[in-house]
Specification:
alpha/beta; seven-stranded mixed sheet; about 260 residues; Rossmann fold; 7 strands
Length: about 260
């Protein structure tokens, strides 16, 4: 049996409703979901319109928008989250989408849930979770172990490069020079913002191949609020899409999405 992981990982019971309003219900959230959907649609065989349903894990599922969409495509999706409130919101979303029969919900550490799974998942969604964990690399390794041969990991994490750039732009030089970028309690800034180069090194060492790298919001999060309000969602998404998969922009987004494949 695999070694149990620390239980100090961030639980979002206290912030779930603020997340729903301030992140998921905004243009920023729509851009994030649109780019993730494009990556998955274009590069995961059988995910959209496939004849064979996939077994999917949404680890740290939050409100489960992406997972519910995939359940709507006929796939079996297992939702796992530490937060009871997040799972309540996920349950409500699955009910509204009329996909409950293809969904299961599990409250607790995903590290415990995957220990009891006999067969690997064809797809694992791991979105905006890694940066909140006490032991991110070890937790990621455990997750990769539960990925089936030939399976895909959709890994999105909070990018420290963006945090440095934003703080410098806003004149927060003391924070930039301190090198301490972890967020405070009740903050949306995570405990451990991550360096994309380091994470890419981790997944390579775990035997995964990155088939696409996407910066999520490579421009939007640097815009002033007035500029954000003045530009339509459609125009903003168009310019994001034009550059988000090109360097250096891909490594400067608020989040970085790595679509990784395990050898068959």
């Amino acid at each position: 049996m695999k070694e149990s992981h620390p239980r100090e990982d961030r639980n979002f019971d206290d912030l779930a409703d603020r997340f729903a309003k301030n992140i998921y219900g905004t243009i920023k959230g729509r851009i994030r979901l649109a780019l993730l959907t494009e990556d998955l649609t274009e590069l995961v065989s059988g995910l959209y319109g496939g004849a064979q349903p996939l077994d999917i894990l949404d680890a740290g599922c939050g409100m489960a928008q992406m997972g519910c969409e995939l359940a709507g495509q006929g796939h079996r999706v297992h939702f796992c989250d530490l937060s009871k409130r997040m799972l309540e919101l996920a349950d409500a979303m699955a009910s509204e989408a009329q996909v409950m029969e293809r969904c299961s919900f599990h409250q607790g550490p995903f590290q415990d849930f995957i220990q009891d799974k006999d067969e690997g998942f064809q797809l694992i969604l791991f979105h905006a979770v890694l940066e909140w964990l006490v032991a991110p690399k070890a937790s990621l390794e455990a997750l990769v172990d539960s990925l089936a041969p030939g399976g895909t990991l959709s890994l999105m994490f909070y990018n420290v490069n963006c945090l440095i750039q934003r703080n410098a732009t806003f004149g927060n030089f003391r924070k930039v020079m301190s090198g301490e970028f972890g967020g405070l309690s009740q903050s949306f800034t995570p405990l451990h913002p991550l360096d994309p180069a380091e994470v890419e090194g981790w997944v390579a060492g775990m035997g995964l191949t990155v088939v696409r790298k996407t910066g999520v919001r490579v421009f939007t999060d640097y815009m002033t609020k007035d500029v954000q309000k003045a530009r339509s969602y459609e125009d903003t998404l168009e310019v994001e899409r034009a550059y988000c998969r090109k360097e250096p922009f891909a490594s400067m987004g608020r989040y970085v999405h790595l679509l990784c494949r395990k050898a068959s």
